[in-house]
Design brief:
Elements: H1 17-20, H2 23-39, H3 43-59, H4 64-72, H5 75-89, H6 91-113, H7 117-128, H8 138-168, H9 175-199
């Protein structure tokens, strides 16, 4: 299955300043960008922040093509959202919303492109440990993220394969020819993943209730 059309770029080996930045600081950067998307009210400020995030991505050496690919995949959605917001609230508000979403996408791309997956998962476990007192399981949380990171490219590749197959048969405009095969493939993949986890005892509760 191809990995074409992946929203979040994969880790790119390097020794840039961004690569050497502590993981907690990268997490903080992503969180700050998410928070800023609610606080920034001027589209010019959003544009400046987006430019800074893009500069960090390019500074990491991940490449201009990867950056364009990450942004391009959300372009249709942002175009629809931007057009609706323009109609409802005007150009400046629409521009601010679209730019703020792009800031979050690029910030997440900086994190994943400069952090190995295992280090990222270890960081998630470390950050989640304080929540053990509330019943959270950091290891399971990290496992969930690992499955998500693995599933996104699979589903994207499945959609690309189905789309190409439908186009070859002249059915590219038939929703059933696109949606149904992807749905079946995704369900089968989810069941296989669940079976693999169950075989390793990861899908079972740690403490079984005793009658």
């Amino acid at each position: 299955m191809r990995r074409r059309g992946v929203l979040i770029p994969y880790y790119v080996r390097g020794n840039s300043v961004v690569h050497r930045t502590p993981l907690w600081l990268k997490f903080l950067l992503v969180a700050a960008c998410g928070l800023a998307s609610f606080l920034i009210v001027d589209w010019l400020v959003s544009a400046v922040v987006l430019a800074i995030m893009c500069a960090l991505f390019l500074l990491s050496g991940a490449g201009f093509k990867r950056l364009i690919r990450a942004v391009w995949l959300v372009t249709p959605l942002l175009a629809a959202v931007g057009a609706f917001q323009w109609w409802q609230l005007g150009g400046p508000v629409a521009a601010r919303i679209v730019l703020n979403v792009l800031v979050c996408v690029v910030a997440a791309s900086v994190l994943t492109a400069t952090t190995p997956v295992q280090a990222l998962l270890d960081g998630v476990v470390a950050l989640s440990k304080p929540f053990r007192r509330f019943g959270a399981d950091p290891e399971r949380f990290a496992l969930t993220i690992a499955i998500m990171l693995r599933s996104i490219p699979f589903i994207a590749g499945a959609f690309s394969d189905v789309r190409d197959s439908a186009r070859a048969r002249g059915l590219e405009r038939n929703p059933r020819a696109l949606v149904l095969p992807v749905f079946i493939t995704t369900v089968a993949y989810a069941r296989q993943t669940g079976d693999a986890l169950a075989a390793r005892g990861l899908g079972e509760a740690e403490d079984s209730p005793v009658d």
